[in-house]
């Protein structure tokens, strides 16, 4: 038998500190019993055992171990090299190398690198919004790279050691974007393809709740639009902005439930408000007028009571328990303005009452529909100190018109009634005075009487006739004070008791007379009357040396027609008045010079000559 070489004679890889192989395969167990026989197979004759040469796994394993150690050593060395500096080496952002640098160096390098790409980064971004296409300029929506945040992300997202051996890595920039500006611009681009969401609401017809069911809209979601633009900005292709269906937070079923459980019970019976000066009844009609069941921007309905509307609906009942605060006033005494201090009042805190009422409105039992009202001090809206700051020291204009019939005539009484209501009115700087807004409706309950008014081109009896003369007088006082004309309408026909063109009619609620106090001083309106005249004066501080009127000649003169009307109480005969067109120029002077000219033009129709019968 030939002798086999010993396994230890095989060459090995030497290590400074030899160690056993990392892994050794387990030995194969020896077979037990005779070898298996297979049909057609004749086993060989038994003979002396054959010596087998042992396998040489140790050399291979030592080689593997050596390579692993070399890799680990290389990785360790590469890691030490790659992590030199705050930002790992080989890191780039949009092609700008920032690796191996300190934070400040990386920030400076990225700023400089992006500055060279401003043409690309600032170029308009093409967008697709359904069927519409658009472009957005990055600067218009704050679209850009947050350099500081990008460097921070590059520092924090450190790669694993193995990937360091594979080469450089790219870090995505942190993108800035003003979502609101983008949403507004995209909304304009979407145009007709957008469909507004119809929010739900519940309104009242009298005291009957009526549902307005929600309907979904079609448009843009600000967050999803911004996400798409951020992701696709630098991709080179048009960015697809998703069009979404916008659903209100409240459904049709929610609206029906709210009517059944809240709106209908809310107006089913009155609510009693107890106060230290007596009880106040809030009728269902007042609840319906002040109850708001309107959805917010998300389409959700949160019931509220409007405190101002509640107070307006309870003006009569509240007057029984409240004391009205009185503002400081300016009275004209001996031709000079004199300030009278205001007084405090006591009133129900309707803001707190509105909140408390909401809690009991779903209740049906009378005992449960009771709340406590709280009386609080009501301060004057204007104090004497406030008026002292307004510079009201002298008369700046005055105007008088005359009437016939004496003070006992219904028309004269209407003029005086309007004058009483306006007397002492204070118009603060920048504020607009509205005659309709100041007096409210001028009806029988307010002390007005029947007198001739112009309706459909002819004189007929009507409550408040004559207030147009007061309106004209007030308009001219404001006109010659140099105040800004906001709204007025001359009569259809010319009456010689008024100045042509610069006069005004009024009719509740459609025709109004308004002017703005366009001076830095307060303006107080003073009214006075005699048996045959009405005068309105303005007190303030003079802004102009003078305000005058220059007229053009009358033109386009027309003659009146004769119209016969049936006899009766509604027929008022007239003599007829020619029609014409004329210009009036308001001339402002300061320091002896004309500084402004304002043109007013009006065309009067020829008033027919009406005969009765």
TrEMBL record:
Annotated stretches, region: Disordered: 1-40
UniProt keyword annotation of Transmembrane helix present: yes
UniProt domain YoaR-like putative peptidoglycan binding: residue ranges: 262-364
Keyword field contains Transmembrane helix: yes
Lineage, broadest ranks: Bacteria, Bacillati, Actinomycetota, Actinomycetes, Micromonosporales
Pfam families according to UniProt: PG_binding_4, VanW
The name this protein goes by in its record: Vanomycin resistance protein VanB
Biased composition regions of type Pro residues, renumbered to the chain: 17-38
Keywords: Membrane, Transmembrane, Transmembrane helix
PANTHER family: EXPORTED PROTEIN (PTHR35788:SF1), EXPORTED PROTEIN-RELATED (PTHR35788)
Transmembrane segments: 61-84
InterPro entries attached to this UniProt entry: Glycopeptide_resist_protein, Vancomycin_resist_VanW, YoaR-like_PG-bd
Signal peptide (UniProt feature, chain positions): none
């Amino acid at each position: 038998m030939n002798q086999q070489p010993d396994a230890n004679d095989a060459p090995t890889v030497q290590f400074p500190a030899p160690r056993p192989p990392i892994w050794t395969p387990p030995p194969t167990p020896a077979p037990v019993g005779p070898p298996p026989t297979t049909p057609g197979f004749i086993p060989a004759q038994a003979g002396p055992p054959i010596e087998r040469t042992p396998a040489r796994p140790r050399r291979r394993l030592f080689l593997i171990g050596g390579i692993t150690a070399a890799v680990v050593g290389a990785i360790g060395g590469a890691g030490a090299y790659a992590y030199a500096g705050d930002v790992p080496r080989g890191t780039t952002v949009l092609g700008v190398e920032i690796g191996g640098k300190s934070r400040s160096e990386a920030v400076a390098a990225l700023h400089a690198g992006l500055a060279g790409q401003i043409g690309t980064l600032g170029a308009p971004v093409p967008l697709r919004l359904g069927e519409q296409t658009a472009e957005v300029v990055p600067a218009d929506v704050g679209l850009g790279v947050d350099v500081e945040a990008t460097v921070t992300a590059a520092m924090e997202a450190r790669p694993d050691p193995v990937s360091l051996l594979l080469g450089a890595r790219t870090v995505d920039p942190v993108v800035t974007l003003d979502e609101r500006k983008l949403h507004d611009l995209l909304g304009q681009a979407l145009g007709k393809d957008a469909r507004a969401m119809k929010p739900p609401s519940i309104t009242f017809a009298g005291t009957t709740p009526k549902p307005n069911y929600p309907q979904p809209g079609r448009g843009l979601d600000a967050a999803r639009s911004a996400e798409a633009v951020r992701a696709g900005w630098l991709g080179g292709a048009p960015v697809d902005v998703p069009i979404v269906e916008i659903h209100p937070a409240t459904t049709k079923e929610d609206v029906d439930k709210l009517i059944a459980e809240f709106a209908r019970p809310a107006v089913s019976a009155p609510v009693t408000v107890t106060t230290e000066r007596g009880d106040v009844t809030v009728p269902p009609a007042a609840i319906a007028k002040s109850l708001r069941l309107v959805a917010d921007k998300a389409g959700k309905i949160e019931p509220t009571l409007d405190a101002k509307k509640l107070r307006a609906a309870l003006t009569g009942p509240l007057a029984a328990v409240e004391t009205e605060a009185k503002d400081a006033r300016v009275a004209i005494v001996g031709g000079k303005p004199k300030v009278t201090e205001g007084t405090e009042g006591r009133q129900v805190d309707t803001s707190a009452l509105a909140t408390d009422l909401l809690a009991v409105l779903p209740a049906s039992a009378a005992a449960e529909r009771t709340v406590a009202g709280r009386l609080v001090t009501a301060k004057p809206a204007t104090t004497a100190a406030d008026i002292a700051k307004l510079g009201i020291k002298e008369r700046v204009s005055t105007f008088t018109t005359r009437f016939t019939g004496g003070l006992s005539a219904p028309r004269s009484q209407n003029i005086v009634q309007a004058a009483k209501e306006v007397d002492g009115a204070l118009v603060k700087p920048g504020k607009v005075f509205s005659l309709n807004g100041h007096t409210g409706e001028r009806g029988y309950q307010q002390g007005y009487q029947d007198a001739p008014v112009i309706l459909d081109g002819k004189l007929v009896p009507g409550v408040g006739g004559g207030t147009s003369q007061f309106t004209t007088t007030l308009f001219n006082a404001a006109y010659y004070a140099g105040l800004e004309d906001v709204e007025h309408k001359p009569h259809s026909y010319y009456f010689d008791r008024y100045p042509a063109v610069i006069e005004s009619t009024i009719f509740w609620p459609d025709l109004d007379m308004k002017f703005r106090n366009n001076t830095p001083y307060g303006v107080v309106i003073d009214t006075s009357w005699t048996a045959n005249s009405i005068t309105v004066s303005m007190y303030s501080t003079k802004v102009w040396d003078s305000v005058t009127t220059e007229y053009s000649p009358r033109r386009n003169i027309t003659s009146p027609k004769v119209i016969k009307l049936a006899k009766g109480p509604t027929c008022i005969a007239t003599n007829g008045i020619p029609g014409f067109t004329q210009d009036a120029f308001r001339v402002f002077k300061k320091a002896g010079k004309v500084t402004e000219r304002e043109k007013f033009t009006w065309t009067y129709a020829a008033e027919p000559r009406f005969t009765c019968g």
